[in-house]
Amino acid sequence: MGGAMLRSWLDNNLIGNINIIDPSPLPSDLQSDNRVSYISKYDGSKIDSDIVIIAVKPQILSDAAKDIAENINSGTLLLSIAAGQSITTLENIFGSGKAIVRTMPNTPAAIGKGISVSIANDNVNREQKAVAQALMDASGQHIWISDESLMNDVTALSGSGPAYVFYLIEALAKAGEKAGLDSDIATLLARQTVIGSAALAEAENDISAEALRQNVTSPKGTTEAALNVLMDGRFQDILSEAIIAAKTRGIELD
């Protein structure tokens, strides 16, 4: 996720210079960008950057941050995309006086089609918030919230959501095979149907999903026959159960 967002920032010329600390080697396209400097291990020097991006797995956040936390300039904005790590957790690690923005993006940010949700602590000033907004806008749509407890709901719906859509493609393809289609054809039809439907929903964003569904459903036709099965309550119950499971896990990680 960090790499995807970095590419969008570079492509949109939103950053002048960036220093990356990562034990893993950089991809070749980032290695060749003269705006990017790389070190595999932090050397203990003072960090006076305008922004520090925290893009690590939540399980290693404390270990990854302990060496840099005390060396970050007091005026630096911290932008965290570490999943399930609360503002309080981040303040405990980096200091309660630090300006911190917690953000939940999703993987379509890699192609500028993501959506991210952010919350800022009280130390973030107007200019810093505007900078964070510009960075997140480069990856797609972005909204602010003021109630951090909603971040677990956001994570469950949009943060994990791309996986649900990819699974829908898998399930549609398998259903097509079961109906009699060749595997390659079923996969192509399922994939492109989801892609095209999502593009149509984006192009006609003034029309509700319900109306779009109704527009493609002829009375007593094939689509209605399928929807009579899909809309008997089981599908909605499964989705709701999945979202609650993801939310519960997010609460456990906080």
Give the topology:
Blueprint: H1 2-11, E1 18-21, H2 28-31, E2 36-39, E3 51-54, H3 61-65, E4 77-80, H4 87-94, E5 99-104, E6 114-120, H5 126-137, E7 140-144, H6 151-159, H7 161-179, H8 183-203, H9 209-215, H10 222-230, H11 234-253
Parallel strand pairs: 1-2, 3-4, 4-5, 6-7
Antiparallel strand pairs: 5-6
Helix pairs in contact: 6-11, 7-8
Structure description:
With 254 residues, the protein is α/β, with parallel strands linked by helices. The chain folds into two domains: 2-146, NAD(P)-binding Rossmann-like Domain (Rossmann fold); 161-253, ProC C-terminal domain-like (ProC C-terminal domain-like fold, Orthogonal Bundle). It is built from eleven helices and seven strands.
Overview features:
ProC C-terminal domain-like fold; single chain; alpha/beta; 2 domains; 49% helix; Rossmann fold; elongated
- Secondary-structure element order, N to C: HEHEEHEHEEHEHHHHHH
CATH class assignment of the largest domain: Alpha Beta
Would you identify the CATH architecture of the largest domain? Answer: 3-Layer(aba) Sandwich
- The helix content, as a percent range, equals 40-55%
Biggest sheet statistics: 5 strands, mixed
N→C terminal distance: 19 Å
What is the domain tally? 2
Q: How would you state the average pLDDT, rounded?
A: 91
From the alpha carbons, calculate the radius of gyration and give it in angstroms. Answer: 21 Å
Strand-pairing-aware structural class = alpha/beta
Shape estimate: elongated
> CATH homologous superfamily name of the largest domain?
NAD(P)-binding Rossmann-like Domain
Number of helices: 11
By CATH, the topology of the largest domain is Rossmann fold
Low-confidence stretches: none
- Beta-strand residue percentage: 5-15%
Number of strands: 7
